[in-house]
């Protein structure tokens, strides 16, 4: 194949295909596998300002979505016209169509902006839902709203402003950023905007700027009045607010004067002028989005040993930041034994070794209801000593603005389990712990931070010596909590970098553990990075260990929504159950609601929970308010007191499937149960027991009963894995599934009163 043709198809939306023999044409854009490449990155978007920081992605905790390439998505939209592509392009362009265009190969490069605008007017802006990407090894639970501008708030894209003066070149090649390519101290950029509102009032002015590690500093003037200095050094889009300004009727001039001795450039995106409200005036709808995510994939390069790592974005802050891209992309000690290490992530270290990175985790459950959202993934092959390495996490809604998370991490096998957890930069307080300082590092007294002990030079060295300022409790209570008061590391709120906030992340752990340590872990040193993150390491030791690390994780702003958390009794046939197969937790909220959360791995057993109700299933929640039941949720179960699901799980075997590359794919199954309503399966996931080389988990887009079988339509998700022979296509494909393989489709029911 002539690679020039292939490259041409990528850069030229009007490209019609690659000529083959016998007059045939091959168009890569019609290949469903090629198409899926355009859809592989943007689902990692969080809060419209972060990406899930998997492996060597971006700077730790930074609001940077630059890996989502708008130009690539514009090419894809020109071919496929998908609504979500239009919405993501619109969002990436600052919720505007200004400056959106195709490249020079298009007949009318600017017409695409009108197409996108029409889609936004009909369908609204981006509203991403929870998603399981089993091939990528990524799952995300989403709730809340992005918010909207307040009345009395006026937004001006800098790309739409008139440029009154520019002593150096101005670039509009990176919308929505207006880039000023200053080359010396004293260079000036002046933009103009009209203001026709009440100028007797006072306003706050927020400038969304684009920052890098090598851009400059400027003085900002409004109508020849100096306001403040402004730095454009940092990472990605940052909002900076200048308070209590006065505007003039008609044209206003905003002037930027370079004050740098070196590194002169700057970039600005949007100007928002907001009226300073009286106390009784309504504020804008706040951003209530919260997103819990997990990674469990296998990647060829730039990956970390981080299977079942948890991340969380809420209140517009990355509350559980991955360490991201290393300081040096080499094979050195810091990268291999700290930044990439299992210990530096929110997961579990077994037997003092890093995970083996060669296996993808296996999803077992995923659900997305209004009240309970959950994922459940197993990754037992990451450690040869474990029979079980499984994380079940559920996000439980408190109200429209807030949720809490119940997290159960089961590990069976090996002789040492260490649950590692850290939140973002902030001050840390604890309850239920008596912490005593330890000399040296987490590796032990006498060890030196950052220096690998001579006794352990293995490639799977866990990197204990990268944790410093250690405090330990060698006999922790059965319930303790660690509370991070989060700082705004990158100035997202407009109050400066590393500013204090009223945002908290509280970890409460239940159960018996051998020890708990707090220690400082240092992220890669980059502009704006915090000095350290405070880690918690919870340890169990012994032969043939069987641990269940039980946590309630609550992000909150101001005051916690939770009054108390406690374990509750679980019995079977009147006998107390003491195994880790089942766990039940009672969460009492300050609003008076009481939630009972239950998780059991054996879905055939019936358990009595808190001597209050019977439970038979995988996961459930049972909520009361003032003695009355308000909601019941049951996943893969058929008994929850009086709440019953007719079918807990659909089981069966694969009969056939789409064997060619196609836009529309199906899997025909033979169910073990008599299914009368195929619509009950729509939006569920089918889990097929294949060879585990790659996951065979597919979302059911639609379903149809036919002659004792069910056709599951899975959209453009192809079950083709690879060519049998890359040099001889006539040999056909290797498939991800095969006829006769067993399958499950877990069902759930939510009843609210």
Key features of this structure:
mainly beta; Jelly Rolls; Beta-galactosidase, Chain A, domain 5; 6 helices; 54 strands
Rounded Rg: 27 Å
State the major sheet.
8 strands, antiparallel
Strand order of the largest sheet: 22-23-24-25-34-31-30-27
Instruction: Tally the beta strands.
Output: 54
Q: Structural class of the secondary elements?
A: mainly beta
Named CATH architecture of the domain at 290-560: Distorted Sandwich
CATH class of the domain at 290-560: Mainly Beta
Parts with pLDDT < 50 across at least 5 consecutive residues: 1-9, 279-283
Q: Rough shape?
A: globular
Oligomer: single chain
CATH topology of the domain at 290-560: Beta-galactosidase, Chain A, domain 5
Distance between the termini: 62 Å
Determine the fraction of residues in helical runs and give it as a percent range: under 10%
What does the average pLDDT come to?
90
Approximate strand percentage: 35-45%
Number of helices: 6
Structural summary, described in words:
The structure is a single chain. By secondary structure, the chain is mostly beta strands. Among the domains are: 28 residues, no CATH class; 123 residues, Galactose-binding domain-like (Jelly Rolls, Sandwich); 271 residues, Beta-galactosidase, Chain A, domain 5, CATH 2.70.98.70; 104 residues, Beta Barrel (Thrombin, subunit H), CATH 2.40.10. Helix content is 7%, strand content 43%. The protein is built from six helices and 54 strands. The strands form eleven sheets. An eight-stranded antiparallel sheet has the order 22-23-24-25-34-31-30-27, with no helix packed on it. The N and C termini lie far apart (62 Å). The N terminus is likely disordered.
């Amino acid at each position: 194949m002539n690679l020039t043709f292939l490259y041409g198809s990528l850069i030229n939306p009007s490209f019609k295909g690659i000529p083959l023999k016998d007059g045939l044409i091959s168009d890569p854009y019609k290949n469903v596998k090629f198409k899926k490449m355009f859809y592989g990155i943007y689902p990692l978007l969080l809060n419209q300002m972060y990406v899930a920081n998997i492996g060597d992605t971006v700077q730790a905790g930074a609001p940077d979505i630059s890996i989502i390439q708008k130009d690539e998505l514009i090419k894809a939209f020109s071919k496929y016209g998908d609504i979500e592509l239009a919405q993501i392009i619109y969002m990436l362009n600052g919720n505007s169509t200004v400056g959106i265009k195709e490249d020079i190969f298009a007949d009318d490069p600017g017409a695409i902006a009108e197409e996108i605008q029409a889609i936004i007017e009909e369908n609204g802006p981006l509203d991403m839902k929870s998603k399981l990407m089993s091939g990528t090894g990524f799952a995300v639970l989403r709730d809340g709203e992005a918010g909207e501008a307040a009345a009395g708030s006026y937004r001006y894209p800098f790309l739409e402003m008139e440029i009154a003066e520019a002593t150096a070149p101005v670039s509009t090649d990176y919308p929505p950023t207006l880039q000023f390519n200053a080359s010396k101290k004293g260079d000036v950029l002046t933009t103009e905007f009209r203001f026709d509102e009440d100028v007797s009032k006072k306003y706050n002015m927020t400038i969304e700027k684009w920052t890098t590690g090598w851009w400059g500093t400027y003085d900002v003037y409004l109508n020849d009045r100096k306001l403040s200095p402004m730095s454009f050094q940092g990472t990605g889009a940052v909002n900076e607010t200048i308070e209590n300004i006065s505007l003039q009727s008609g044209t206003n001039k905003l002037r930027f004067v370079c004050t740098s001795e070196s590194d002169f450039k700057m970039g600005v995106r949007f100007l928002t002028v907001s009226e300073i409200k009286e106390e009784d005036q309504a504020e804008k709808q706040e951003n209530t989005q919260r997103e819990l995510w997990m990674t469990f994939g296998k990647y060829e390069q730039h990956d970390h040993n981080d299977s079942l790592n948890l991340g969380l974005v809420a209140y517009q802050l990355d509350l559980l930041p991955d360490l991201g891209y290393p300081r040096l992309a080499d094979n050195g000690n810091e990268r291999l034994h700290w930044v990439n290490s299992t210990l530096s992530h929110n997961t579990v270290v077994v037997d003092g070794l890093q995970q083996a990175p060669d296996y993808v985790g296996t999803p077992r459950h995923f659900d997305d209801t209004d009240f309970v959202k959950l994922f459940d993934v197993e990754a037992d092959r990451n450690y040869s000593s474990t029979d079980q390495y499984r994380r079940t996490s559920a996000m439980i809604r408190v109200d429209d603005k807030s949720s809490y998370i119940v997290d159960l991490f089961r590990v069976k096998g090996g002789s040492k389990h260490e649950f590692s957890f850290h939140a973002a930069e902030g001050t840390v307080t604890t309850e239920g712990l008596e912490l005593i300082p330890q000399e040296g590092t987490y590796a032990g007294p006498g060890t030196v931070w950052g220096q690998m002990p001579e006794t352990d030079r293995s490639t799977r060295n866990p990197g204990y010596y990268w944790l410093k300022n250690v405090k330990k409790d060698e006999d922790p209570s059965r319930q303790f909590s660690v509370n991070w008061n989060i700082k705004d590391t990158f100035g997202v709120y407009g109050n400066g970098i590393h500013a204090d906030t009223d945002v908290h992340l509280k970890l409460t752990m239940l159960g018996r553990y051998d020890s708990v340590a707090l220690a400082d872990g240092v992220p890669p040193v980059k502009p704006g990075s915090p000095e350290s993150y405070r880690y918690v390491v919870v340890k169990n030791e012994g032969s043939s260990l069987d641990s269940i690390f039980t946590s309630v994780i609550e992000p909150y702003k101001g005051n916690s929504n939770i009054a108390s958390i406690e374990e509750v009794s679980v019995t079977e046939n009147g006998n107390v159950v003491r195994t880790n197969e089942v766990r039940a937790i009672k969460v009492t909220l300050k609003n008076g609601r009481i939630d009972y959360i239950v998780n059991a791995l054996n879905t055939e057993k019936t358990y009595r929970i808190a001597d209050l109700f019977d439970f038979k299933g995988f996961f459930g929640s049972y909520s009361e308010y003032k003695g009355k039941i308000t909601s019941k949720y049951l996943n893969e179960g058929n008994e929850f007191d009086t709440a019953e699901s007719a079918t807990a799980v659909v089981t069966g075997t694969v009969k056939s499937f789409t064997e060619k590359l196609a836009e529309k794919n199906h899997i025909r199954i033979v169910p073990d149960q008599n299914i009368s309503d195929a619509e009950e399966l729509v939006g569920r996931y089918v889990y097929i027991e294949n060879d585990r080389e790659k996951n065979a988990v597919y979302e059911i887009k639609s379903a149809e009963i036919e002659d004792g079988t069910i056709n599951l339509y899975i959209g453009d998700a192809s079950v083709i894995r690879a060519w049998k022979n890359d040099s001889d296509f006539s040999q056909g494909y290797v498939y991800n599934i095969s006829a006769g393989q067993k399958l499950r489709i877990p069902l759930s029911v939510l009843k609210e009163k």
